[in-house]
Fold:
Amino acid sequence: MNYRSAQVCTLLLVAVATASLPAQTPARLTIDLNRPKATASPILYGLMTEEINYSYDGGLYAELVRNRTFRSDWSGILDWYVVEKGSSAAKIGVDATTGPSTAISNSAKIEVTRADANSPAGILNEGWWGMTVRPNAEYTGSFWARSDKPGALPVQVALVVDQSGKIVARASVAVNGSAWQEYKFKMQSGAVPVSPENHLEITVDRPATLWLQLVSVFPPTYHNRANGNRVDLMEKLAAMHPSFLRFPGGNYLEGNRIDSRFDWKKMIGPTVNRPTHAGTWSYPSSDGMGLLEFLEWCEDLKMQPLLAVYAGYSLNGEVVKPGPELDTYVQDALDEIEYVTGGTDTKWGAVRAKDGHAAPFTLHYVEVGNEDNFDKAKTYDGRYAQFYKAIKAKYPALQIIATMPVNGMTPDVVDDHYYKRQQGMFDLVTHYDSMDRKGPKIFVGEWATREGTPTPNLGAALGDAAFLTSLERNSDLVVMSAYAPLLVNVNPGGMQWSSDLIGYDALSSYGSPSYYAQVMFGSCLGDHIPVSDVSGAGAKTFYSVTATAKSKACLKMVNAASVPQPITINLSGLGTGTHNAGVQTLSGAAPWATNTIKDPARIVPVASKVSITGETLQHTLPAYSIQVFEIELK
Ligand code: AHR
Structure:
């Protein structure tokens, strides 16, 4: 290239770059606080969850032991290893002939042929990519066991540092005789440094044969629940102010096959009565997170349950045809609703009380199936109608969500799903503006801007926030929404679906920029949508406003462009005098900027305050920014 053509090229590049800049003239946003346009849904923001990316096992469900039911493959028992110290000798294998229950009818057989006090032998579990031990913490454990010894066999349980072999917490359990029994124990750590590089050892100090099953160790959990959840993750979810929890899926509800669906009756009561099952995301589920645990999760975060019931379609295409064949599944759903909502004088309400929760839960929404548009046999019209009729007959107040439009009837609510790149989310921003308000309400039950892995980057957060402004503006129609997937274990092999809201390993967790965008959006929501209009803004400026009279106006603005956007904001009706506003800003230097497990706080909300005197505010939206203004109305 000669000098002249290089010059032309430079000029062209400048021209192209200038053409793509947003207008630098101030945009004008007018909001008429005296003119409500529509009501805003108070339950717009919620959570969607399923067993994916080690969301529960190895994630939210705080169990430290991996493969507590001793599954095995050609290589041996997964995640468990032999311990032979000093001169001891031991062998482990699965014994298919003995187990503690009908649901779990096998066990690990540990044959210790040589051991003494200085040379113990047994097994160890590696945990979910480690086992975090914190200082001065109590670890609650249990296992089912039997031995070949008639009297008491002392069994040592210990949390052990991987690198040094040092014991950091321990317990001794006397296993009595040959009948299966459950044993419970506590282990207390001392002033040890916090670390995920630990494992669990279970050993004996004499020759013996020991059968073990359902080995469990929990750290302190959120609200100290037995069989409970990880504290850091629950705190992160609480900060989103979610109003509902859609569970248990997603694909996980449907199962790859009918017999691996979320069969809730096998996921209640003591864990020894839960057989475990194959998940849909390439790993099995311990089923420790069963129906009651989902409900207690709702209770802990003050969310209403949004119960998805299995509707006769599984991912491999297996379908239960509408009609008599489907009746069993409809009855299962009715029983499930009774388990959730029934008094203790009902059959399934009494079972729930026996499981430890006498008070019924309040339920408003039931979803029939998941993504039934994939059903090639096209049976959803009939299946939905059959569930709808039966559920409404017994529970007329329940709102029944369909997973797709239904021919022949109008569902109460239809669930829309969107997974797109940033540009695709921008394209959706006007989608609901002109939609018929006489049809079913909308639940956006899964959505995400999929840019960034394992968790979304700032560019994705900008796409997400832009999309959320459209849901807020239309929240008379869009009554609920939930991002998906919610959780990801960031260890190698932990992720099956990329761009997940919150990442974690055994030790810690972090929120993605998209997570913080949702924390900000969920922090301020009015009860109505005032009339508003914007003009002169760049194509990547988005906004929504909701307000509650005499209380607050919540203004959300997104500038997804690489340059700042000046904007004049007129709040008609604000009145004279000065009004204070809290402002939260999420921004970064580039769309690919992100948070990681090692660098969790690169992109986090920054709080500031602004005073608005009169009804006009001159403001500049920073480049690549999301801002939430909470303006006090007196
Ligand atoms: O969120 C991941 C998956 O996406 C869900 O399981 C399914 O419903 C959707 O296709």
Observations:
- The pocket of alpha-L-arabinofuranose is lined by residues 50, 52, 249-251, 370-371, 446, 484-485, 497 (CB under 6 Å).
- The CA atoms of residues 244 and 324 lie 33 Å apart.
- Residues 72-218 form a domain with the Jelly Rolls fold (CATH 2.60.120.260).
